[in-house]
Design brief:
Helix content: 40-55%
Strand content: 5-15%
Number of strands: 10
Strand order of the largest sheet: 1-2-3-5-4
Largest sheet: 5 strands, antiparallel
Distance between the termini: 66 Å
Shape: globular
Number of helices: 10
Radius of gyration: 20 Å
Length: 310
């Protein structure tokens, strides 16, 4: 019987066997576990490469193939290092899922090592998103459960806010609700669908010496409203650097885009708080390090909308 996806244990021996079968010139390089993410495991291969293998979700195969299809053409235009696919591993009886060999991007995840050099980090993030946010071609992927107008996510927002409030994770649920209400009332994006990273939470952005040095995990790459990515400024940057980021990003975002971005930021911060709380309670898939940036983001978002409303 062939192994099921859930039954496959990913080990260094398995990966080395896969490399020997399909990419034997890489099989003897040093190999060590880098990270276990939501969808994939990441193993460092030698000094400059990494192996990404799906392990935890059925959708991971599609996400890896998306990266392989689109990221090599986008990467040369981006000012921060990204994991560029180099080789594709095809499904076999040994491992019946696709997998990738990519470039290795050094740095520390921002949920563990936040940016501290505010203006420099804001400039780096603005330059990266300015370069990425170009009109996407016909056939570009759509977002999976993200992007587009905010209104369809109202039930998801209400459920998340109720859960966060019930657990006592936010001191001002009414303020968070006001952020969302203002964002939903903003005009929708009417410009072209732009390339978006789609998942710029702190664990997917790397830092070094207090500023950003890389952006990883492009499984959610899609075309849509830039507000979806601009939301990341609230969780990635020190509080004094958000306005600097907005001024450095091109074209300068209009007021409606910034309002929608605040809504996306609030929605993601709520989700991150629940994931962090799960981690604090020792539950599977919980990530305690996601809590501090999410709490800080909600506080700043509530303050920003409150200031506008006065």
């Amino acid at each position: 019987m062939s192994p099921t996806r859930a039954a496959i244990e990913i080990t260094a021996d398995l990966i080395r066997d896969l490399l020997r079968d399909q990419h034997p010139d890489l099989a003897d390089q040093p190999l060590k576990l880098g990270a276990r993410g939501w969808d994939n495991q990441l193993w460092r291969l030698g000094d400059d490469l990494a192996v990404r293998l799906p392990w935890a979700t059925e959708s991971a195969d599609e996400l890896l193939l998306k990266e392989h299809t689109w990221l090599p053409a986008l990467a040369p235009h981006l000012p921060l290092p990204v994991p560029v696919p180099q080789r594709l591993g095809v499904p076999t009886a040994r491992f019946p899922r696709p997998w990738l060999v990519t470039t290795w991007v050094p740095g520390d995840p921002a949920d563990r090592a936040p940016a501290t050099r505010g203006e420099e980090a804001a400039d780096a993030l603005a330059a990266f998103l300015t370069a990425l946010h170009r009109p996407a071609p016909a056939g570009a992927p759509a977002g999976r459960g993200r992007g587009g107008p905010l209104a369809p996510y109202a039930e998801h927002f209400a459920h998340s806010l109720a859960a966060v409030t019930e657990r006592g994770l936010t001191p001002d649920p009414d303020g968070v609700r006001a952020v969302w209400t203002d964002a939903v009332a903003a005009p929708d994006w009417t410009g072209p669908a732009l390339w978006l990273h789609g998942d710029l939470h702190p664990a997917n952005v790397l830092t070094s010496n207090g500023t950003f040095c890389g952006v990883i995990d492009y499984g959610d790459l899609f075309a849509g409203d830039p507000a979806n990515d601009l939301a990341a400024a609230w969780t990635l940057l020190p509080p004094t650097a958000v306005d600097h980021f907005h001024a450095a990003y091109r074209p300068t975002p209009d007021a409606a885009t910034l309002r929608r971005a605040r809504g996306w930021a609030a929605l993601r911060a709520l989700a991150a708080l629940l994931i962090a709380d799960d981690g604090d309670r020792g539950l599977p898939n919980g990530k305690p390090t996601w809590g501090p940036p999410a709490r800080a983001a909600l506080g700043r978002l509530v303050g920003a909308v409150g200031a506008v409303g006065r």
